[in-house]
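TICKET: design request
STATUS: open
ATTACHED STRUCTURE:
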């Protein structure tokens, strides 16, 4: 008999009231080792670009749970600094928790509690950006990382410390040293811990009108090809991931070919727009003529008329297919956004230039609208239609 294996996804203004293109789900976390004494956490952002569940320690109900601290070999509690490319970071202890969504349950998942305190000065990430340790700063009560990786650091962190990830901390303001952490206790994709439907996820998002919408909706299905409702769709092409280095860290990516140049590409539902190269690179091809950086809303693309920007998606095995993003006038669209006095939170045609580098493509939540996208988890058995070898580093399919 099929299990309940899906949950609703809602794009709205979020708990801070001004989020854009942010998909939220509810996640139930429970006492370590079981499914009792639980707290349901709403407004957890869905993120296909990272792996691991991260919940604000201040979220309602969390303080009443009994969650076991993950300890280093010397018995010292393990904390983590999870840093984003922007320099912003999440700081807090690693604990074991039960995690439930729909009919799926895992009793012991390493998760991060996002602490109210700042990282101590000895921790590398404290000298970077902001600690997103409040609902207002995070625009969510937590992050549900369901990307292709099984753990957030993996084998690299098992042999020597990899900054800024894990730290041994007798207290949140006293960290003795960077930590080596076994994969079994690294913050991990909770889907892989389910008893079934654990080889990946399928995310179906409804379409959004060209002018934007106050709300958007979709459904997250657990498992790929494990139930009648999560089969790999006809015409869907899987793309195997390969390793790439960005900002000194190791990531996995596919490729985007634009104007005969190949760039690393990522499929990341937590990004609120499609980051597509920079205005000079975009306008170098006839299809991108007229797309410029908005003069006021810098970082967003402006254009006099909506443009379908074509590119080719390619994977490590040179499998490829045509794709496109739609680019609207960023200034016009943003004028209707909740943060600027409007009512819209969902936009399918917001795009901009990558602020840190001009040589990559990040397909954010706008790319998901009107599509079904699959995320295959590293090391898990793929469904019929996906080569077994694609489990090596995981895959995206659409």
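STATUS: resolved
RESOLUTION: sequence designed for all positions
ATTACHED SEQUENCE:
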């Amino acid at each position: 008999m099929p299990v309940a294996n899906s949950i609703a996804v809602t794009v709205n203004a979020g708990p801070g009231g001004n989020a854009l293109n942010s998909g939220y789900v509810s996640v139930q976390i429970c006492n370590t080792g079981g499914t009792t004494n639980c707290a349901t956490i709403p407004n957890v952002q869905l993120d296909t670009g990272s792996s691991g569940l991260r919940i604000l320690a201040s979220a309602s109900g969390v303080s009443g749970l009994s969650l076991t601290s993950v300890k280093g070999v010397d018995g010292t509690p393990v904390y983590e600094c999870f840093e984003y490319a922007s320099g912003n970071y999440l700081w807090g202890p690693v604990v074991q928790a039960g995690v439930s969504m729909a009919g799926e349950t895992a009793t012991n998942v390493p998760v991060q509690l996002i602490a109210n305190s700042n990282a101590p000065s000895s921790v590398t990430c404290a000298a970077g950006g902001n600690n997103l340790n409040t609902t207002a700063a995070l625009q969510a009560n937590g992050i549900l990382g369901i990307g292709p990786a099984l753990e957030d650091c993996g084998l690299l962190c098992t042999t020597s410390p990899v900054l800024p990830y894990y730290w041994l901390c007798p207290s949140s303001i006293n960290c003795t040293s960077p930590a080596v952490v076994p994969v079994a206790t690294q913050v991990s994709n909770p889907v892989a811990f389910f008893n079934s439907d654990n080889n990946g996820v399928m995310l179906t998002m409804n379409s959004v009108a060209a002018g934007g919408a106050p709300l958007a909706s979709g459904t997250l299905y657990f498992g790929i090809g494990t139930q009648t409702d999560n089969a790999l769709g006809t015409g869907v092409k899987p793309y195997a991931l390969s390793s790439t280095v960005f900002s000194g860290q190791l990531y996995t990516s596919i490729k985007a070919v634009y104007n005969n140049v190949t760039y690393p590409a990522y499929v990341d539902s937590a990004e609120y727009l499609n980051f597509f190269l920079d205005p000079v690179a975009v306008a170098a091809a006839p299809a991108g003529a007229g797309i410029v950086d908005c003069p006021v809303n810098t970082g967003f693309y402006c254009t006099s008329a909506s443009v379908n920007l074509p590119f080719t998606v390619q994977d490590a095995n040179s499998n490829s297919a045509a794709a496109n993003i739609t680019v609207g006038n960023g200034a016009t669209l943003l004028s209707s956004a909740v943060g600027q006095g409007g009512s819209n939170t969902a936009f399918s045609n917001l795009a901009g230039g990558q602020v840190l580098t001009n040589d990559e493509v990040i397909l954010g939540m706008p790319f998901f609208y009107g599509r079904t996208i699959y995320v295959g988890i590293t090391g898990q058995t793929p469904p019929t239609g996906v080569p077994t070898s694609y489990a090596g580093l995981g895959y995206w399919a659409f």
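CLOSING REMARK: The CA atoms of residues 308 and 326 lie 5 Å apart. The chain has five helices and 26 strands.
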